[in-house]
Structure to design on (118 residues):
């Protein structure tokens, strides 16, 4: 994988900011209130975009949120095209990011181990 250019890094940040705003304003009841855009990877040719989503809740809430986001892809892409002036508006692919949840689980286990040592 090649290193991101400064331009690509800037585009990723801008797309992430705009997508966070757009997703927060969605009216789909399946999309949970605790949905966060953790990272965005826009391809250098601006054709595709991986959007990493973190959802606080159980597996059912995560599944429903992904379904809601996938059904609203067209709307989200159109809103992104209105807010960001890019040559191409990338095709969006949502990916569930469980790294925050994994980190919280590990932190809890470490705290338990430290507590038992006292």
């Amino acid at each position: 994988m090649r290193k991101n250019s400064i331009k690509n890094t800037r585009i990723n940040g801008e797309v992430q900011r705009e997508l966070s705003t757009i997703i927060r304003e969605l009216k789909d009841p399946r999309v949970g209130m605790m949905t966060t855009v953790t990272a965005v990877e826009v391809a250098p040719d601006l054709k595709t975009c991986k959007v990493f989503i973190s959802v606080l809740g159980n597996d059912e809430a995560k599944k429903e949120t992904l379904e809601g986001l996938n059904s609203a892809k067209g709307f989200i892409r159109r809103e992104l095209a209105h807010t960001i002036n890019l040559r191409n508006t990338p095709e969006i692919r949502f990916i569930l990011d469980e790294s925050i949840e994994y980190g919280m689980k590990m932190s809890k286990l470490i705290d338990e181990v430290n507590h038992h040592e006292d």
About this structure: DSSP finds four helices and three strands in the chain. The first helix runs from residue 6 to 24. Strands lie at 35-42, 48-55, 91-96. The helical segments are 6-24, 59-71, 73-83, 99-117.
